[in-house]
Amino acid sequence: MIKTIKCKEQFSPERFKQLLLEEDTDTLIKLFDKDPSSVRRLITRYSYSPNEDIQKAAIDGFYNLSKQRAITQTNFFREIIRRHIWGMNDEGGNIDWSAPEIIGAVIAGQPKLFYEFISIMFYTAYEEPFFHTSLLKALLMIERSEPGAAKAFIKKTNSVIHNNDS
Fold first, then answer.
1. In this predicted model, what pLDDT tens digit does every residue of 71-109 receive, in sequence order?
2. What angle do CA 124, 126, 131 make, to 5 degrees?
3. Which of 84, 132, 141, 158 is the most exposed place for a label (fewest CB within 10 A)?
4. What pTM was estimated for this model as a whole?
């Protein structure tokens, strides 16, 4: 069960979803500073939403947190990356569909800190066709943040996506 995050006002999961959709980064950072693990769990929860707006808002939440807090909490964000790499390899049927985008958002937030994970994310996701679209989105996010960092991987991903469409 996902708990309510307590600060000046209580943030239920539903209120937290609104916070993401409203792109209220300042409040997101304040909540993260109070309870990083609960914020991570809630954002992860919404990254699996079938609603594309909610899913995108959650991915953007990971990006904003990484951009503003990864320098001081590097290990916390490395753990997010590791969890989702593991999730892409899970053989128990609980496939982490949004994993490439979550990893990409964390990397894009601080590309110099997490550069070494680009290739790991790529090769983990590239092997499974159902990750290709999410992988491409992740790589484009990284490329926007750090031009040249993901260029070769984007080309390879585009190639395989277009070959699968044929």
1. 999 999 999 999 999 999 877 566 788 999 999 999 999
2. 95
3. 158
4. 0.91
Smallest CA-to-CA distance from 134 within 68, 78, 72, 52 is with: 52
Which of 34, 54, 69 finishes a domain? 69
Q: Of 69, 101, 116, which marks where a domain is finished? A: 69
Could you tell me if residue 154 is inside a domain?
Answer: yes
**SS3 annotation, the chain:** CCCCEECCCEECHHHHHHHHHCCCHHHHHHHHHHCHHHHHHHHHHHHCCCCHHHHHHHHHHHHHHHHHHCCCCHHHHHHHHHHHHHHHHCCCCCCCCCHHHHHHHHHHHCHHHHCCHHHHHHHHHHCCHHHHHHHHHHHHHHHHHCCCCCHHHHHHHHHHHHHHHC
